[in-house]
Each structure stands twice: as C-alpha cells, then as structure tokens.
Amino acid sequence: MTHFVARFVPALVAVVVGALEVAAQTPPARYLAPLTYDSTRNRAVLFGGISPTTWLADTWEWNGTLWTQRTTSTQPPERGASALAFDSSRSVCVLFGGANPSGLLSDTWEWNGVQWTQRASATSPGPRQHHILCYDPIRQRTVMFGGTTATSEFIDETWEWDGTNWTQFTPAVRPTIRRHASMTFDPIRNRIVMFGGYTSFVELNDTWEWDGAQWTRRFPTTSPPIRSNAAFAWQEHRGRALLFGGYYGGSLGDAWEWDGQNWTPFLAGGAPSARHWVAPSMTYDPVRDECVLFSGMQGNTPVGDTWTCNGTSWSRKIDFITSPVNGHHYALTPPMTWQQAEALAVSYGGHLATVRNAAEQSWLQSTFTQPSTWIGANDLAVEGQWVWASGESFSFTNWNAGEPNNLFGVEHVAAIEQVNNGRWNDGPPSQATPGIIELPGGPTAPFTATALTTSAPPPPLAATALAPLPAGGAVLFGGQTSTGPQFGTYELQGTAWTKRFSLLNPMVRTNHALALDTARQDVLLFGGRNPLGVALNDTWTWANDQWSYRQPANAPSPRSGHRLAYDPTTQTIELFGGVDAAGVDLGDHWQWNGTAWTQRTPAMLPPARREHGLAFDARRQRLVLHGGASGAAVRDDVWEWNGTTWTQVTPQAPSSFPWAPTARAGHAFAYDPRAERVLLHGGADAAGGCTADAWTWDGSAWTRLSTTGPAPSARRGSTAFFDPAANELRLFAGACGANFANDLWRLDLPVFASSETYGQGCVGTLGMPTMAIEAPSRPLVGTTLNLRFVGVPGQFIPAIGAYGEQRDTYVGIPLPLDLTVVGLPGCTLWTSAEDTFVLPAPNGTGSVVWAVAIPNDPLLLGTSSFFQGLCFELPGYPRWASMSNAVGVRIGNQ
Fold first, then answer.
1. CA atoms within 13 A on the CB side of 179
2. Sign, Cα dihedral of 717, 718, 723, 727
3. Model confidence pTM above 0.70
4. DSSP 3-state helix, strand, coil percentages of the chain (rounded to 5)?
5. 800-804 and 784-790 beta bridge pairing
6. What's the rounded Cα separation, in Å, for the pair 497 and 814?
7. Per-residue pLDDT averaged across 798-816, rounded?
8. What Cα–Cα distance (Å) separates residue 74 from each residue in 18, 58, 70, 625?
9. Which position among 10, 232, 708, 862 has the lowest Cβ density within 10 Å, counted as fewest Cβ atoms?
10. Residue ranges of the alpha helices (H) in 655-792?
C-alpha cells in the first residue's frame, strides 16, 4: 500500500451553468463582427458587431448548416470593432475591447460554450478598437496587434494573453502603426501572418510574421493591392491562407492566397459580393474543411449572408429558420427547377417540404410569401399517384379547385401559390421557382468516412454476409454480383483480401447471415436463398480457414433476410425474423449455443419482418432491432431484448417533435464500442430507393451524422462491422439498382465524452473531501481537463492525486479497497492508481485544481480514466490523511 500512497491523482468539481439555445434563425445583417471557430464544440462563434442602427451584443453559433443564437445570464456589453479568437488549450473564445456609444472598451471576456465570463488581469491593454486577435496554439497565447485609441491615435502595440494576464512585447522591429489589419496563424511554419491595414489615411499591403519573439517583414515578389479590412483565414486542405475583399476607395471582391513565400490570386468561382469591414469575420472550419465568412459592409450597406469556401469554389449558405409548429428547420432556395431544388435539399440532409397538416400549411404560407414555392409533393414516378419527396405518407392535401390537372401532360410537381391563398397547384418541374427546404429537427454530429484501398477484393456484391473474425479482420461468403451468384469465401486482414479454399463448402446463396461467436471463437452461418430461389436452413461454422457443416437436432425453418447477433451475456447467437420461400415474413426468435438451436417464446415479440437491423449494444447490454420490411411496407420501429423479454422503445423526440431515420430495410447496422453507439447506414426507403444517411442510437435517442467530405454512396445490403485488430468501424459492399459495390470504408463516428462521480471520501478536518470536474472542462482529446479537489486542509502541504486506468482492481486486489491497513480507517481506494501526482498546495483556500492535459491522440477516444484525491491532515487529527470520492471519465471528441 505504500506504493499507492506514493502515487495518487486528483479530479474536478463540476459546475453546471445552463445556456438557452434559441430557435435556429439567421443573425441580422452587421459589420465589424468578429467570428472565430470553437474546435472543441465544432462551432463557429460570432459576437456583436454593428447593424445599420444598433450596436449589438448577441452571441451566435454556426454548425455548418444552421445559425443558433445563444443567451446566458451574463454577457459582454454591446460593441463593434472588437476582436475574437479561440484559445484551443483552454477551450474558450477570447474577446477584447471594441467600441460602443459609451466609448472605447478594454475589457477581456471568455466564452466557454455555456457562458461568458469577464476576466481581470494585473496588466491590460488600454481601450481600443479596430485591433486584431489571433491564437498561437504552439505557444498557447492569444496575440493582439494594433488598433486605434480613444483619441483616434493609431498604435503598433503587440500584446499576448495567456489565460491569466496580458503581457506587452516591444520588439525593436515591428509593423508600423495601423488598424483594420488582417491576421491568421500558419500551422506549417508556426507563426502568425499579418497583412495590410490602414494607417494615417493610407491603406497598406505589407506582409509580416510574428514568431512569439519578433516581427519579421516578408517581401514576396507579388502582393495583393493595398487594402484594409480584408477577411483572412488559414485553409488546412490547401496549406495556404485565404484573403478576401477589404477596402480601398470602395469595397473589394478579389481573393488571394499566401503560401508562406508568395501571394497568388485565388480565382475560385461563385465568390461573395465585394465587401469590407470583414477583417475579423472569416474563420476556418476544420470539421467541414472550409472557410466560413459572415457579414460585412457592401458599399454603405451591412450584409448578413453566410459563405463558405472549400478551396475550389465559394458557396452561399442558405439561411434556415425553425418552425414553431413542428420544430423542423426551413429555408428558401433560389429560383430553380424542382429537381434542382430537391437535390439541394438532399445535400443539406433534408427534402423539399412535406406538409402534414393545416398548421404546417398555414405557417409555410405566412413565412414564405413568394408568389409560388415548390414543396415536396410530386407524381413523377406514376402519374396521378402523389407522394412526398421525404417518403412520408401522403395524407394531408390543400389543392386549389380543379387541381391537380396535369395541364398539357407536363405538370408533375406541386407548389404553394399565394395568389390562391396558399392552395397548391401542380406545375412543370422544369420551371424556375424557389423551393422550400425542410430539415428535420434534432441532434446532429459530424463523422469522418475514409475509403480504404484494398487488394484482391471480392467482386462488387449485394445480398452477401460478412462477420468479424475472432482475432480481427472479417470473413465473407456468398452474395450476388451483377452477373450472378458469388461462390467464394474471402477473408479480410487489414486492407488485404484473400480467397480461402475449404474442403467442405456451403451451397452458394444470398440473403443469408453470418455472426462471430465469441464464446466458441468461430463464425456462424445460417440460412439464405440458393440461386433457384429455394430458402435454406442449414447451419455452418467457419474456423481455422475451414467450413464445418453442423447438424443440430432442431433448427429454425428455411428463410432468408433474417439477422444474427451475438449476445455475450448469454454467450449465444440470437436470430430474429426473415422471410420464408413462400414470401411470408417471419417473427420468431431463436438462440444458438454452439451445438443446438432453441426457440425463444417470450410474451412479447416484435412484428414479423425481414432485412432489418440487429446488433448488440455492449454498453447497455441490450440487443437492438430496427426497421426492416413487412409485406410491401417498411418499418422504422426500435425494439430491445434484455435476455428475457422484448420491449418496443419510443425514441426521444427533441422539442416534442419526431427525430429518427425514415422507415427502411436492408440497412447496415452495427455497434461501435469506441463511440458506444449503434450505427445505422443506408438501406432502401418506402419507395424502394437507396439512402445514404447515417445515424447513431444511444438507447434513447437518434443522432444524425453528417460529413462534408467523402462518404459511402447510397446503397442497400451493405455490412457494417467493428474490426478490433484495426480498432475501427468498417462498412463493405452493397448495391443500388444495377450498381454493385465492393468498396471498403472506415467510419470514424463521434465519440461523446462522459464523466461520473462514484464512491465517497472519508471525513477530514474540513469535512468530506470531494473531487469533481470543473465546468466548462470536459474529457476531450486535445484539451485540458480541470479536476477540483475540495476539502484540502492546511497552507503549504500539497495534496496528492491518483490516476488509474480501471476501477475494478488495484495490483490484482479487488476494488473498492478498505485502507485501514495503511492507517486510514474509514477511507476507501476507488481507482487502480497506476500513477500519482503532487498537486498544488491549497494556500488556506481549502481546494486545489489539477490540470490534466489530454493529448490530441485518436487512440485515446473511448478510453476511460479514474481519479481520486488524498489530502494530508493537520497535526492532532485522528488520521494522517483523508480521501476523496472518485471521478471516472470516458475520453471523447464531442
């Protein structure tokens, strides 16, 4: 136990401060509004600025699709011409200075994603406006340069904020006095780059770099023309900084790139309108790999549009608002054909609007007042059979008298028409009309998909079966190609496929099922349909590169389209559903224990179905079933099996509105232990079309995943599986119509950080010592986790913190462990304590903070850590030390 006493680690006190998210809408037009990117929460953050008649003090966040206004009980006063930068080491946005009707400001504020906090410093820059801020992540400092003072003097001051104090630097060589300069950080050369600005009635075009010690002027062979107030942000995908717009005798609309050596024109198409006063108004979004620009001044008019640049082209982002009727998000497209409007809606993750009732109709009619607007109703597939683009049931209608009439045989899509009091008319889809985009309302999260280059893969397949192998990799058998059945067995190790040859082989088949049997270290194959259409019910196992035919006394009836999943709580493989040779859907439940099949007959069973999703949720110890086809319909219901009974689960509805994948069959469905979520991808929708959307299920609610980068195409019949050897979730094959695929994808799902306190401490001089996480700190990769230890007596004696990687054992001894043996009666060890740290002395405050730096390492995602504190007691106390409770964290990136 002396090992433990010498090596012990602390935790944090959690302070939860609520912030209200207001319905998504668009920030009002403004200029001199600073924008930065919060890489911890994956949001661009905007504060204040100046509207045509008002100084603003509002906080907004942009998630790549929607603007959301945030309000808290405390916030900075109204202002414009201020500066904002994100401090990634402390996960806060830093705001300094600016101006409002009362004069110039010199206050420092920080936004942690939950609340604004004003910060004090022993030294501080004087009041100023039109300065610029930029964060240096290498030196972990926010750098400020220039601006003008209350007496309108231009300044050349360089200041740095370290999170506690401002420090002024006075290098001998520095840029000349100026305001309205543009600044960004170059992560390749690890220095801040500044361009241009305005000084003594003269615009500039000089280029400077700050390395933390000195300014160096660069003399490139070409430079942008002189200007001030230009937007400037780094582009990671191009390894260059992008400069846009600014002012010289009027608003400018040209763009340039700085590569660390020279400036070159950036001629991407579709650029925003010319504008100035945007020096602080562009930032880089690393999740979506694009620069984001908002607001500015066009001539003498403030603008409120949002633009992104992906390095190839500019794109104006559509502004969404949230309906109070159903909580969904809506936006208006430019005039375009119905098909173009629907494609644009799908690119945002939605469809043209579905109108479900009179309340939705009334709100759409009063909100979008253009003469005519496309909605999702159409009979493009079958004349006279009207459907919604979203696939929802076509129940509510609001046709004008005599409509739809398919005039001249070319009217196949519907529009709301104001001239007819909002009633619908059918029209030709080729007509250029604005469309109403609808996005369902609910939680979203980004994910990354990477196409893996494989060697010797199977042919492009559908209706195949694949399962992980015990030691990693996967085995695949059978399936359908575009020209006929696939006969072979393939194994995947890493990204290399190898065709295997067994002495005995199952009959070729499609729509069968495979599952890894962890208890017996083999892979089970059951059922399917042979090339003649005969349903099968044979049982096979794969181990040591050979198939073995199993002949249990009893077995499920012949079927295809069923699903298998391994349940570690019973060490059995579970089978549910399928369809028999006569086309009758099945709803029976069977278990395989390695030698025999046993039918389970609980009081409640999910309805019969085929091509559903089935996966075991290891975190919650539940089997999860979703969707599938029943007869001619598809389903969207969720059921869970706890080892005894089936229970239907109603997904949580954000703001009381539904939020879930649409009904579907043939989708990929698998559990990701790193994300602790079940993934759903693709499948066939109610109309039989292929889908490409991705969702995760956490046991109570769905989260929609979005990516602006590469992603698997729309498909059905693909397989998702977690490969423990590669430590990644993968997706393989599938088809859409006649297009068959054999691509392999790595899917990096968002890993949600979590924490808990458990156990309890033992009473000391200052009562019960406690440890908890101090808000806004969270266990996120690339950040610092602050743990506060309260109840630490004394002045100069430091506390001890213990860090463990588990909470079950300490050097082989079961936890929790009574510490009476080391002279701490009534105290308990709650963590494995592999390492210990000396914490700061309390200095009579009764508490200390332990800052735990979490490396920005993807391998840490999903790992757990456990913390506990020890404090030395004052002389005369019955024990020599006391212990806190414990804190457990799971490291994530969300």
1. 19
2. negative
3. no
4. 5, 45, 50
5. unpaired
6. 43
7. 95
8. 11, 11, 11, 45
9. 708
10. none
